[in-house]
């Protein structure tokens, strides 16, 4: 539901937009058939659908109205300043004229005091002329004084109006700060769309017949739990990490290197735009059935409290494959900038092109947290990553698929030790899983070797 509120400040009217979302609870879902499950999922999607186009249209209209009023106030302020400057200039001219009159009066008075050796008649005529000039000067001064008073009155009026405009502008800015901003609504819409793609469906909605017979309703913490609970095939599952306040959907790989992997990144065709803002990378974007980024907040909940393994799989345009496996991987919280806090224990044939980024915060085009003082790595390299200054890998760069001209150096989806920074890979995916008993050691050759290096 949309509610428009109006705030008036003299001739200025501000409209505030309030959004209320009315949701109804889904009907009781029967698990007797697949048709009931499908109907429940459809109902959940319909219940969360909002008229986003109408919201964006009204929000844009509100922005236009605020912009017009702001432009009008700026125009009035400029006109007031122009008039004030003109009046001050006229006042300076009046003061100059008065000073001239004073000098002329002084000269005439001094001349009248000088003794005359002319004939009395000629002296009288000169005196008459001096008196006439003095009278004219007095009248001129009186006119100037009257004009100056009027000028002072106009200046006071202009100052009063400028003060009133300033008060209105201050009130307008205060109300504008209290209004729902477009960025806030856009972020809310993104979260809403995200929830529509990954709705909070009851845990038992996707359970099979055997699972429904079980009394256990605990949601798996990660794909490793899913695997251990029943050796399930690869696919999309609902999980809830131990420190996450809500469950979400993930893509699990149960086949690669003993399985139990949770996909956090997947690219293979370039249909999904990865040059997005901080908020998108925080909550995630894309489609679990295609290309996607799981979301930094989800990755933190998966890896921030327990050290995980990381598997990076790469494919070039000719189908050549390579991988990089890390025995230790952990991402910090949002307060920490989703920093790459732990990274180590590399093995594989792709080369270690991620170690350079260890300890770095995550950066996007609209939030620069890299170490490059002269610029923004995310903007310069068209991506989002744990940039330092800047990168030796950039798996969220442009999808350009193949050899690149020199002008596109560092712009593509690349891994420097596998095909280099002037080559954009065809496929890349990143997966994590908790370390277990059979996980490789973080220091393969022991701690002594670590100390020596």
Helix-strand layout with pairing:
Layout: E1 2-9, E2 12-19, H1 34-47, H2 52-113, H3 120-178, H4 182-197, H5 209-212, H6 223-230, E3 235-239, E4 248-253, E5 261-267, H7 278-283, E6 285-286, E7 292-293, H8 296-303, E8 308-315, E9 321-331, E10 340-348, H9 377-380, E11 393-394, E12 402-403, E13 414-415, E14 423-424, E15 427-434, H10 447-452
Antiparallel strand pairs: 1-2, 3-4, 4-5, 5-7, 5-15, 6-7, 8-9, 8-15, 9-10, 11-13, 12-14
Could you please describe the fold and organization of this structure?
With 453 residues, the protein is an alpha+beta fold. The chain has helices at 34-47, 52-113, 120-178, 182-197, 209-212, 223-230, 278-283, 296-303, 377-380, 447-452; strands at 2-9, 12-19, 235-239, 248-253, 261-267, 285-286, 292-293, 308-315, 321-331, 340-348, 393-394, 402-403, 414-415, 423-424, 427-434. The strands form four sheets. Strands 3, 4, 5, 6, 7, 8, 9, 10 and 15 form a nine-stranded antiparallel sheet that branches. A hairpin with an 8-residue loop joins strand 9 and strand 10. Helix 2 packs antiparallel against helix 4. The model is unreliable at 1-31, 197-216 and 446-453 (pLDDT under 50). Keywords: Coiled coil, Disulfide bond, Glycoprotein, Secreted, Signal.
